[in-house]
Amino acid sequence: MTGYARVAIYSCLVNMALMGMKYMLGEISGSLALKADAIHSFADVISSGAIFLGIVISARKTKIFPEGLYKVENLVALLSSFFILFAAYEIGHEALLSSSDTEISNVRLVTIGIILMMAVAAVFSRYELKVGLEVGSPSLVADAKHVTTDLLSCLVILFGIISTYLGYHLDRYVALLVAVIVARMGVQIFLEAVKVLLDATLDYATLDGIRKILESRPEVKEIISIGGRNSGRFKFVEISLTTNLKRLNDAHLVTSEIEEEILDLYPNIDKILIHYEPEHKTIEIVATPLDVKDGAYPDEKCLISPHFGDAPYFAIIDRDFSKKKVSVRSYMKNPFTDVEKKKGVKVAEFLSEHEVDEVRSRVDFEGKGSGYALEAMNIEIVTTTATTLGEMIEKMSRKLNS
Ligand SMILES: [Zn+2]
Q1: From the CA of 42, how far away is ligand 1's center (Å)?
Q2: Ligand 1 centroid from CA 103, angstroms
Q3: For domain 3-198, is the CATH number 1.10.150?
Q4: How open is the CA angle 364-365-369, to the nearest 5 degrees?
Q5: Considering only CA atoms, which of 263, 247, 249 is closest in space to residue 239?
Q6: Segment among 206-220, 264-278, 370-384 with least mean pLDDT
Q7: Residue 41's CB: how many other CB atoms inside 10 A?
Q8: What fold characterizes domain 204-278?
Q9: Of 174, 185, 151, 139, nearest to 39 (Cα)?
Q10: What distance in angstroms lies between residue 44's CA and the mean position of ligand 1's atoms?
Q11: Which of 43, 65, 68, 113 is deepest in the core (most CB within 10 A)?
Q12: Mind giving me the DSSP string for 337-401?
């Protein structure tokens, strides 16, 4: 856990402790204001819990926090807001209707208790502010400042309790004031939760637009999932896809391009996570150029051609990973043997149209136009030492089964 996620948990625990102490002291003394402030601390527990989740989520630990949890977080906040509003109403109601001469007991103990709470809150808020500024977390800084303002309300409550003890009965007015503050917090928590729950997923048009962008990229082979979700004010899109790019750097580059394209079109999205993996083919298609004498029909006895663009035939071979079998699927006549220019490039395009994954050749394509064309079409080039097609198939088969 990161340092500031830990501080957010501490904040949650401190607020819980304050809530418990305020409630206990409220019971011991009979102070309505203290009981009201216990509910205030409960609202603080809810908001510091949300800060903790927000920090964890923005740390991109998506695997640990499944999608459902974001909604649970908002639902808990929503239910809590009803409880907070109801409690504020009860306190306010009691403050307005209670007889004006309620007695405060155990004043000395309660005073010591409140001062102790203030000391804990003061020390903690200083620590939280320090960490918040160090790591640059605006939510931690805001939480620390909130704790500081809470010190002020503790002071007002203490003043109300002492005044009531002395016969001025100000506790109920302080309770009313705290009830108003608590009600305001309840409304804020309610609005935030509803806002997030109402547009918890991205609208259909946005998701469809993202799908179109993905489909327009030839490198994207399969879209496994597109998900949208909100967390607090953040809008996330999570995409899972397979790509035909074999090099990790290429895949990374393409996904960054896709990210930019989506963000340009939908500026309301805060973050896009793209998970990619190479496509899992059960069958790979391998092509190899063949030397075939004029008028003869190609077979496995044919020699592998040292040419590419000029080769009269291509053997199309299936490498089946599930059946562990290498076999010739078909022979294709090279339609570009009579073309004057850029034969190699045209043949590369032709093979790409036939979904060829790999070209096996006896010569190196390095530095040649056909080599660049094959690379651009993401067709792998492998050199072979075999002389005939049959020999090459045997070698490939042996390797597949080893
Ligand atoms: Zn507070």
Answers
A1: 8
A2: 26
A3: no
A4: 160
A5: 263
A6: 264-278
A7: 22
A8: Alpha-Beta Plaits (3.30.70)
A9: 185
A10: 5
A11: 43
A12: TT-SS-HHHHHHHHHHHTT--EEEESS--TTSHHHHHHHHTT-EEEE---SBHHHHHHHHHHHHH
Query: Ligand 1 mean position to 102 CA, how many Å?
Result: 26
Q: How many Å apart are CA 290 and CA 360, to the nearest integer?
A: 11
Q: How far is the CA of 171 from the centre of ligand 1 (A)?
A: 19
| Gap from CA of 61 to ligand 1 centroid (Å) | 29
Distance from residue 196's CA to the centre of ligand 1 (Å): 22
Closest CA relative to residue 362, chosen from 313, 307, 301:
307
Record the tokens describing residue 55, joined without a space: 């920090």
Distance between Cα 41 and ligand 1 center (Å)? 6
- For residue 327, the CA-to-ligand 1 centroid distance in Å is 73
Task: Answer yes or no: CATH 3.30.420.130 is held by domain 283-401.
Answer: yes
Please tell me the distance between residue 18's alpha carbon and the centre of ligand 1 in angstroms: 10
Asked if pLDDT for residue 290 goes beyond 90, the answer is yes
In terms of Cβ atoms closer than 10 Å to its own Cβ (0-12, 13-18, 19+), residue 43 is buried
Residues whose beta carbons lie less than 5 angstroms from ion ligand 1: 44, 150
Q: Which two tokens stand for residue 73?
A: 């977080």
Model pTM above 0.90: no
| DSSP label of 297 | P
Least confident of 118-127, 264-273, 295-304: 264-273
Report CA(389)–ligand 1 centroid distance (Å). 79
Residues 6 or more apart whose CB falls under 8 angstroms from that of 142 comprise: none
